[in-house]
Amino acid sequence: MTWLVAFIFCVGLVHAETPFNHRVHNDRVIGGHDAKPNDWKWQVSLQMDSHNDGSFYHICGGSLIDSFHVMTAAHCILSSNAQQYRTVVGEYNLDQYDGSEQFQSVERIFVHPYWNGQLGLGNDIAILRLAQPVYDNGYVAIANLASPGETLPHDTECFVTGWGLIDFYGSVPAILQEAPIRVVQHSVCSQPDWWGSIALENMVCAGGDGIISGCQGDSGGPLSCFTGGTWRVHGVVSYGPAGMCNQLRKPTVFTRVSSFIDWIDAVCAKITH
């Protein structure tokens, strides 16, 4: 099954407001290279227990948007049973316990009401309400989000992060990966030899250089860009090409966060108890 389908502001904590000193070296071209510990503090690992036996495994990324809520992709929600999911913040190496992690049960799932399972029609966004709040242990931070309606100029450099595949052979990293990736404006991304009509204005395209891309396992994770003097999450990993993820003129496509701020705020404000 292709990664196109199978990828598989409210309160609290501190915001990250200074740029990182990223040393970019593209030694691994799909998932990027090892991120430095404690750089992307809003990055979340969304994990699932598909057999209800307590064995959770990473399926998608996400972003911590307040102490009770995680933003991810709607297509990452494979079951309506919230008890089958957990989120991990402060995660870095999936294969070992570092002491920085916080494991949180999911209490409720909010999938965008206009999501219909078709990636090309957009609205690929969901919010998870956590059973207990995340606390500031020095390894987590709430994501700053893009402003309502904000768009990124063509060729803006952002970063895609996650534990997705790092090559065409299915290699899965234990350590969080990062990769610099450049925005492709909608007028280009929607051209027929790019993504055509399935690149919508409420999406962000980034990449398409045949070198760097998101891939299977990165879905739901953030597109982080330094804008307005701070790091902000501008996108949620949604889809990419079948087969090799890093294809020329087939950039990674993200749900545009700035198009969904009103809905995100409304979900965060819901009283669930």
What does this structure look like?
With 273 residues, the chain is mainly β. It folds into two domains: 40-142 and 260-269, Trypsin-like serine proteases (Thrombin, subunit H), CATH 2.40.10; 144-258, Thrombin, subunit H. Helix content is 6%, strand content 30%. It is built from three helices and 14 strands. The protein has helices at residues 3-6, 186-189, 261-269; strands at 33-34, 43-48, 57-66, 69-72, 85-89, 102-111, 126-130, 144-145, 157-162, 177-184, 203-206, 222-227, 230-239, 252-256. The strands form two sheets. Strands 9-10-11-14-13-12 form a six-stranded antiparallel barrel. Strand 2 (43-48) and strand 3 (57-66) form a beta hairpin. The protein starts with a helix and ends with a helix. 47% of the residues are buried.
List the SSEs and their pairings.
Layout: H1 3-6, E1 33-34, E2 43-48, E3 57-66, E4 69-72, E5 85-89, E6 102-111, E7 126-130, E8 144-145, E9 157-162, E10 177-184, H2 186-189, E11 203-206, E12 222-227, E13 230-239, E14 252-256, H3 261-269
Parallel strand pairs: 8-13
Antiparallel strand pairs: 1-10, 2-3, 2-5, 3-4, 4-7, 5-6, 6-7, 9-10, 9-12, 10-11, 11-14, 12-13, 13-14
